[in-house]
Amino acid sequence: MSNKMKSWFESLVWTIVVVLIIRALFIQAYEIPTGSMEDTLLPGDFLLVAKFTYGIQIPYTHVKILDFHRPDRKDVVVFNYPLEPKKDFVKRCIGLPGDTIEIKNKVVYINGKPLDEPYVVHKDPRVFPPLMDLDNPLAREEYQRAWEERRFMGQNRVRDNFGPVVVPQGNIFVMGDNRDYSLDSRFWGPLPMKFLKGSPLIIYFSWDKEQPLYAFWKKIRWGRLFKILLWI
């Protein structure tokens, strides 16, 4: 191998190593696959995610090397879906450890106070009744246990009337902004903070999957390109 070829090969190897390190520890690309975060994030949005926001993990594990801080309420977070950790989800943090979460007729209450949520959309006018009567303290204990054990999967009646439940330590409560069409903590329970991957930084590309490929200029959502997501 000539010196020139050897130098080129070494440069290529180092470039690949640096890119892999950046992807593993700092920045990752992510595509929004569903409408659960509409109208904040749309299907076909491509994001850059800051993986260091809440700490730095050993790649491909949930072991943190550095732990910076936990999410705040209303932060949009990217995380491994607890039931299928190889899948990445994006939702909004609603409740922190120790918070009491309750939903009454689609209105979220945190520690007894209604949460101001200008980002939320409701696209289904129906309001499902509560799953069960929680006036009995024993019923509340069973409800909390069922929620933590992820037994509400497929139970539509927790969509609009939910809780109250207390978010366990080391966990957060997340929901989609498209509140009527989001698979989130109401159904699959609390999110362990060790599953957090980071926070979205910017939409670097966006296209409308409903538009045909030949309508290229219409397919690209030009107004969403390079939209900063730090304060959504």
Automatic annotation (TrEMBL):
Family label: Belongs to the peptidase S26 family.
Annotated transmembrane regions: 12-30
Peptidase S26 domain boundaries: 6-204
Encoding gene, per UniProt annotation: lepB
Superkingdom: Bacteria
Subcellular localization: Membrane
Keywords of the record: Hydrolase, Membrane, Protease, Transmembrane, Transmembrane helix
Principal EC category: hydrolase
Reaction it catalyzes: Cleavage of hydrophobic, N-terminal signal or leader sequences from secreted and periplasmic proteins
Membrane topology: Single-pass type II membrane protein
Main location: membrane
Record GO cellular component, one term: membrane
Keyword hit for Hydrolase: yes
MF annotations from Gene Ontology: serine-type endopeptidase activity; signal peptidase activity
GO terms for biological process, alphabetical: signal peptide processing
Catalytic site: S36, K91
PROSITE patterns: SPASE_I_3
Name used for this protein in its record: Signal peptidase I
E.C. no: 3.4.21.89
